[in-house]
Specification:
The chain is built from four helices and seven strands, in the order E-H-H-E-E-H-E-E-E-H-E. With about 140 residues, it is of the alpha+beta class.
């Protein structure tokens, strides 16, 4: 069973450690004492919590979409050349690059510093285990 430290949960959910501690205090997550007396949260419980939050966010979306992978970020670079534009977005620790028509980039008024959401729909997703042998 995977046990995650509060700091790991915070990193995964892109919130502060204090936010995770508040969730524990509010009873939204359950922390126990792990090795070294550190507070840990069961990985399966974190996964269920993430699903619940995700479902609430999808219900609040301004319009329905079949794409489930939405990464909000900031445009860091836009290269326009002829009919195409290459747009780079930094969404948390993730760098996404999109090739689109120049017309689309112009209509969206994409420039470095613009806030944007990368919506990803793919038929191939490669999954790697983050920390081999870390499960207890």
């Amino acid at each position: 069973m995977t046990q995650l430290r509060i700091s790991e949960v915070a990193t995964l959910m892109r919130v502060s450690d204090d936010t995770v501690r508040r969730w524990v205090e509010q009873g939204r997550l359950t922390a126990t004492r792990g090795a070294g007396s550190r507070q840990v949260i069961d990985g399966a419980e974190v996964a269920a919590f993430v699903r619940e939050r995700r479902d609430q966010e999808q219900d609040a979306a301004p319009f329905p979409s079949s794409a489930r992978n939405r990464l909000e970020g900031i445009v860091t670079e836009v290269k326009r050349d002829g009919l195409v534009a290459v747009v780079e977005i930094q969404a948390g620790p993730f760098r996404l690059v999109s090739l689109m028509t120049r017309e689309a980039a112009d209509e969206l008024e994409l420039e470095p510093g613009s806030l944007a959401t990368a919506v990803v729909k793919s038929t191939t997703v490669v999954v790697e285990k983050s920390r081999p042998g870390d499960e207890e």
